[in-house]
Amino acid sequence: MEMELMENGLTQEEQATQPDAVPKLEPGSGPDVPDPAENEVSEEPPKKKRTSRKKTEKAADAPAPGDALEEDGEPPVPEDAPLEDGPLGEGLTEADQLDPEPEAAADGIVVMGLAEQDVSGESDMPTEEPEPGEAAVPALPQPDAPETERTRPAAPRARPTRSANNHSRLLSLDLNKLDRDLTEPERQEWNNIYASFRSKSVLTGKIIGIEAHAFNVQNRETGQVERRRIYCAAVIAYKVKVLIPETEMWMPGEERPTHVLRNMSGAEIDYVILDVDRVGGMATASRRMGAVIRRHAFDTARGGHETGERLPCRVLTVGPNRCLIECGGRDLTLRYRDISYSSYDDLRKQYRPGEHYDCILKEYDRAAGLMRVSIKEAAPNPFEGAVVRHPLGCRRQAVISGKYGGGVFCTMPDGTTCLCLYTAQHTDREFRKGDTVILAVVKYDYERSLIYGRILSKW
């Protein structure tokens, strides 16, 4: 009992007579006294102190999920402790570092259609660090930005998703009102265009002509929007004109000269609608998107494709000695030897854009992008049975289809080609391509499947 009364060196009566506050002495200004931190009670209420002590002991015994302990065993910093200056995310585990560092985020941002932003750290925007556990929110432009910042010239903004903007513009129209007075063929034509535009389905049509139109295009090198005049293929199924720009005609890396497009009138092509001008009654489309879909369907066909398989093809354009065809979603150039057994002075007299033929697959390698076909081998060889139809010594009517090295190629009515020479009484300047002549069959070469003859007269 005496020990309790003598607590802190004073009796109970002496404690009652002591003043409420004891003046604080400066160090060295008086006699040596014990440190107040050792003998005096802390000003923090005991309850709060005990609560803090319990939290510390609990954290030391069983750390909470997500708390990171230091390697030297120091307890974690309480949640209500102030943040110290240092890199964002330092000392946290990989799972806790949800937000990237500001420097890394700035280096990886690519703003489409805008001028390059200053990422050196000097900015008018506040750069406060987010609290732990909160996601970083991109800063919005402030209304009180400097005048120089508001008037800075910027490049035209590119549309990140052209199809989304076009969809919004199309769906904002009252299509029921616009299509109310359409006839049934017109309604079906517009429904096909709407379906291709929204679901990217493939449409097929014939090119009726080539015309030039002005478009706003973005320069990939400078990023500027330029107005350029581009040749377009026009396709009209019934009344709606669909324009396919030259830039959307060919696959990347397979571009053709402009004169090839201008000679494609009448060709049948596949295309996908890109944009719809319902009020103007027009639409723009892409042939290369249709080619990608057709090519994928050909490459992934069940059972694959083998050499010697018969395939359909379409003629796109024809030149004097070669033609461009489409087979399996690919544009292939065929020379004379792969087109016909017969000899013609000009292929344009026998073949037209838009015609359909069968061809034989000669070579196909999907990985290497290699494909080779032959229209000639899909048809029977006229040389077969020619010895019965044209025996040796017989005279036949034929047309001169070409000349080479002093010889003359003559095509008979059944498509059989005969290599002829002149007689001693004739000269080459007397005969031209397209002239009709009388020839005599003199020899058969069965190994090379050739017939030799001699021109007797001009018909």
State the helix count.
12
User: Distance between the terminal alpha carbons, to the nearest Å?
Assistant: 152 Å
CATH class category name of the domain at 162-217 and 226-293: Mainly Beta
Mean pLDDT comes to: 74
Q: Could you tell me the radius of gyration in angstroms? A: 44 Å
The count of β-strands is 15
3D architecture notes:
The protein is of the alpha+beta class and 459 residues long. Among the domains are: 124 residues, Nucleic acid-binding proteins (OB fold (Dihydrolipoamide Acetyltransferase, E2P)); 75 residues, OB fold (Dihydrolipoamide Acetyltransferase, E2P) (Beta Barrel), CATH 2.40.50.140; 72 residues, Nucleic acid-binding proteins (OB fold (Dihydrolipoamide Acetyltransferase, E2P), Beta Barrel). Helices cover 20% and strands 27% of the residues. The protein is built from 12 helices and 15 strands. The longest helix has 16 residues. It is elongated.
Helices and strands in order, then pairings?
Elements: H1 2-5, H2 12-17, H3 36-39, H4 46-61, H5 102-108, H6 147-150, H7 162-171, H8 175-178, H9 184-199, E1 203-218, E2 225-236, E3 241-245, H10 258-262, E4 268-277, E5 282-286, H11 287-299, E6 310-318, E7 322-327, E8 330-335, E9 356-365, E10 370-374, H12 386-389, E11 395-404, E12 407-411, E13 417-422, E14 436-445, E15 450-458
Parallel strand pairs: 3-5, 13-15
Antiparallel strand pairs: 1-2, 1-4, 2-3, 4-5, 6-7, 6-9, 7-8, 9-10, 11-12, 11-14, 12-13, 14-15
Task: Describe this protein with a few key phrases.
459 residues; alpha+beta; OB fold (Dihydrolipoamide Acetyltransferase, E2P); 5-stranded mixed beta barrel; 12 helices
